[in-house]
TrEMBL record:
InterPro entries, sorted: AA/rel_permease1 (IPR002293), APC_superfamily (IPR050367)
Primary localization class, coarse: membrane
Name of the protein: Amino acid permease
Membrane topology: Multi-pass membrane protein
Cell location: Cell membrane
Transmembrane segments: 7-29, 41-59, 92-114, 126-145, 157-177, 189-210, 222-241, 261-284, 316-334, 340-363, 375-393, 399-417
Alphabetic keyword roster: Cell membrane, Membrane, Transmembrane, Transmembrane helix
GO molecular function: transmembrane transporter activity
GO cellular component term, pick one: plasma membrane
Pfam family, one: AA_permease_2
Originating organism: Clostridium muellerianum
Amino acid sequence: MGDNKKLGLWSIILLGINGVIGTGIFLLPGKAMKLMGPGSIWIYVFDMILVMSMALCFAEVSGLFNKNGGPYVYAKEAFGEFVGFEVGIMKLVVGMIAWATFAVGFTTALSNIWPAASNPLIKNSIEIGIILVLSIINILGVNFAKNLNNIMTIAKLVPLVLFIAVGIFFIKGGNFVPMFPTKVTPSSFGATAILIFFAFTGFEGIAVAAEDMENPKKNLPIAIMITMVLVSIIYILIQAVSIGTLGAKLAASSTPVAQSAATFLGGFGGLLVTVGTLVSIGGINIAESFILPRSAVALAEDGLLPRIIAKKNKAGTPYIASIVTAVLTIPIALSGSFTQLAAISAISRFTQYIPTCLAVIIFRKKGMKSTFKVPFGPVLPILSVGVSCWLLTQATKIQITWGLGAMVIGIPLYFIMKSSDKKIDKSSN
């Protein structure tokens, strides 16, 4: 694939922003305000520091490899094939569930301005259409998908930037008093921190498509850091404007950003944010449709999934993987059984974060030098692992069970694929 068809630095950054900013930021301000009051803005800062520590670890290890796979590759190279497979299969499974949920989320948001979208037949048709159309777009080539992703990312940022730029002049300082209306306890702090934490997730997926990027060892670390800095600034400012314009009303709002925009931009502002929500969800659908097939390709290239899945067309795109992931995602979208998505997603994220952070220390001991190095020695990787473990303690038993259950399912699949791959190798010899 020629470099002109690959993702340059700014396209990688836009892919990252598109993959992180989804529906959460349009809904979280109200929930965070309800849990922690105006002091919730400091939880964003707290989570930003924690996530940036993790992002630094991802930036260092991403500077070591050119292969697709991201966290799967890092875990495999640091801890062996089995651990790598567990990380990779979790990312693949949760990616399909997440994409299905994004498709359903789009029709849910659409029904707010077009009630007919809630009709089961129309709803299902739209969800199938989203998955199929985006898969076809990705099969047509990286350049086409790249351009569409860039356009959608910029389009989703416009209403958010406008909301911040105008809303900041309507902030009322009195709405931040008292900063913490109720006593802050470890449980309330943890509940708010874990809620907001998930708004920052998604950056780990940027590295999955490394082979489709220009000079990934150099550009990936830069893109990861720029992505998370920009996202963090946007999140903190949105929370500040939402609190400053709505005050206590924010806690009871189900559409906080839209309601806040309506206070200083009128009905137009509310509509603009609603459209922005659709664009945002549409954008994260595009990002997931691009990243998900490449998660499967990385496993297939190593014989941990059928090797045919890694096959590419003349445009250099993994068309078999795109078809397979789309076919598997559609029934999940139509099933409507997404209540455990957050739980599975929560645990699966840590199966990527913890091994990657520890991999930084392992690779350094092996003498592997990256294009980027995490400062302060092993402090930040260890801190990141500790934070991940702390966040896991905030999960319920049901969430832990679902998350570990998904990993357990991967164990027999690993040995089946290893046995199958050995038979293929023997027959070819």
